């Protein structure tokens, strides 16, 4: 019997025993490492993420990644509320780490998941989150192979925090870096921006605004792979526009590459509902988080081909060339407004939207 | 200029600019992804973990792990208090993940670190934690190559939670699993148990007890490598005895391997100070967490050789053969007491020591 079969067998035996979490809410015992932890792992995590590599009784997972470069990344998720139109902390945690790997030019392969749960957190909500993680993992074709659970006392967390880490394999030689932009490059935005942040704000219900906005959370490795297949040598930088939005990503690129980025306000894709909500709340969509959009800096001569490639993918149907890279003034992002003026799009100061992801 | 040189250059430029965190306490802006986050990353994390692969401006790190099996693991740390005799949450988070990789038979190579910070957390404490992580990483010869920081509002965390993930390379073919124990095997404990848990309890200061106990937190990959070098084919199971202690680990082994583990109370190494504190608090040292001790199940015929190998290492000077594996009763851990009786060492129920790691 191979090791894989043995593990599958063990999972089967565990499943036949059908461990049941009898508590409706998480207790400190669920984090103690004993019987309650074991039951929680088997009845919730193993049930949701079932795969032969997930080894709840071992200290880690053994995987094979091949001889090439490996991308390794992590993100913690503390979004509030945990459930929002278009997604929840679970698919956010999977897609976010999948996307960070994709931005390195890697094919995402395996994920880990660390949970910090607050005593009293409803077990039903945890099941909803793990189900959503499992669905997102399946969609992104990644496997959650190892994990951890801690429980803290009431008032020492906010229900559930999730930290995912991921490994991916780089299958074609690409050089992607925030410092790779050069004058003459085009700045492409993969789709309409700001929907995730706007959806979270509406879900918080602090504002009494209603609008048909859902989070854009999505795995971007597929569309990125298409782009890199067509233009392996002409994509300079890929960044997903999460916390701080497109403005923050481009400021990092301008700074790291010592170039200027000049955006054209009229060409930045934003849905009118998002623009509307942002206006009501006094926010600039350029700073609002997306969870399924990225910025690609591409050799200007190949910008059209890049755009066509992105638009051919369902997640890039509304992609647009939103700006260009120039030599001066280095380190700055400028916006040509619809009225013909130019203003500096500065680095984000303060936090207009705490706990957006 | 190679990519590595470019990155080192960029780090040098950043260092010359000497970003300074002017706030004494963490604010929500430090988690927003903008200017304050950037400064925090550069002035605190990059300063502490400085290495060419740590790419604060990119979404992940590219590493090379070779063609063999790769071990991948994660753990979240929520220990309270954050600082305790013998260590803090920082070295715990590094050593814990290093040890999980070591228990897979892997040489730990790279770590990620995700921070969840509470608004108001002292920046000086964060520096102390990152300095301690850097020192632990250097001792364990691992590199912290990627990370993330989130900030939550006051009252939504407890100062600082850290989630580390790690990758390691398996350089010799070993088969280690909780399900690998067989009748006739010896159960070896690598050193005196329970010191970490006892140190944490004393540090909580709830009990008014004073005793010269420090945490046993330590990286175990070195001593494990020695053992596997000498006995590559005769070590069945390696588990570090953290949450739930030696009793929990052995229950998992007994259950997964469908064997019994029979412990000899007189041969389990425990320091008298730890025994004393546990007696005062009504705890059994077998259930108390260690952070630098492991249990090895070894082919009985090679137990003496295994013990000699462990004792030759500074972290194993007090290693002991504490029990044996028998066929019956499958799934149970038994303890032969000093008085000649036998009792079942059951799976931990409830949580006697919340937030021990």
Automatic annotation (TrEMBL), chains A, B:
Quote the protein name from its UniProt record: Hydrogenase expression/formation protein HypE
- Tell me which residues make up the PurM-like C-terminal domain: 182-329
A Pfam family that the UniProt record links to this protein: AIRS_C
Q: Which Gene3D superfamilies match?
A: PurM-like C-terminal domain (3.90.650.10), PurM-like, N-terminal domain (3.30.1330.10)
Q: Which domain of life is it from?
A: Bacteria
Q: What is the lineage of its organism?
A: Bacteria, Bacillati, Actinomycetota, Actinomycetes, Streptosporangiales
What biological processes does GO assign it?
Answer: protein maturation
Q: Which gene encodes it?
A: hypE
What is the similarity comment for this entry?
Belongs to the HypE family.
Per the database record, which ranges form the PurM-like N-terminal domain?
58-170
The species this protein belongs to is: Nonomuraea mesophila
InterPro entries the UniProt entry points to: HypE, PurM-like_C_dom, PurM-like_C_sf, PurM-like_N, PurM-like_N_sf
């Amino acid at each position: 019997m191979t090791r894989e079969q043995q593990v599958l067998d063990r999972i089967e035996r565990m499943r036949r025993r059908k461990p049941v979490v009898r508590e409706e809410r998480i207790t400190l015992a669920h984090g103690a490492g004993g019987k309650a932890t074991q039951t929680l792992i088997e009845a919730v995590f193993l049930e949701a993420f079932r795969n032969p590599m997930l080894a709840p009784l071992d200290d880690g997972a053994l995987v094979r990644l091949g001889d090439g470069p490996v991308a390794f990344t992590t993100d913690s998720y503390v979004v509030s509320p945990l459930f929002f139109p278009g997604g929840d902390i679970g698919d956010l945690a999977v897609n976010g780490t999948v996307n960070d790997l994709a931005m390195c030019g890697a094919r995402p392969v395996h994920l880990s998941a660390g949970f910090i749960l607050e005593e009293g957190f409803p077990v039903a909500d945890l099941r909803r989150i793990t189900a959503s993680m499992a669905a997102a993992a399946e969609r992104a074709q990644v496997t959650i192979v190892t994990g951890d659970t801690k429980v803290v006392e009431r008032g020492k967390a906010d229900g559930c925090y999730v930290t995912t880490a991921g490994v991916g394999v780089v299958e074609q030689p690409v050089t992607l870096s925030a410092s790779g932009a050069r004058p003459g490059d085009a700045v492409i935005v993969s789709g309409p921006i700001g929907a995730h942040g706007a959806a979270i704000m509406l879900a918080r219900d602090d504002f009494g605004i209603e609008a048909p906005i859902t989070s854009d959370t999505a795995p971007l490795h597929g569309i990125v792979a298409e782009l890199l297949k067509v233009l392996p040598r002409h994509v300079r930088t890929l960044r997903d526009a999460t916390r701080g939005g497109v403005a923050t990503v481009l400021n990092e690129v301008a700074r790291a590459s010592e170039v200027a980025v000049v955006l054209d306000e009229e060409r930045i894709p934003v849905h009118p509902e998002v623009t509307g909500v942002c206006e009501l709340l006094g926010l600039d969509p350029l700073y609002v988080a997306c969870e399924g959009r990225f910025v690609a800096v591409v050799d200007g001569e190949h910008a059209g081909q890049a755009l066509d490639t992105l638009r051919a993918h369902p997640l890039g149907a509304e992609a647009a060339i939103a700006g260009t890279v120039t030599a001066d003034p280095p380190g700055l992002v400028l916006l040509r407004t619809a009225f013909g003026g130019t203003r500096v799009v500065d680095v984000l100061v303060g936090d207009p939207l705490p706990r957006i992801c």
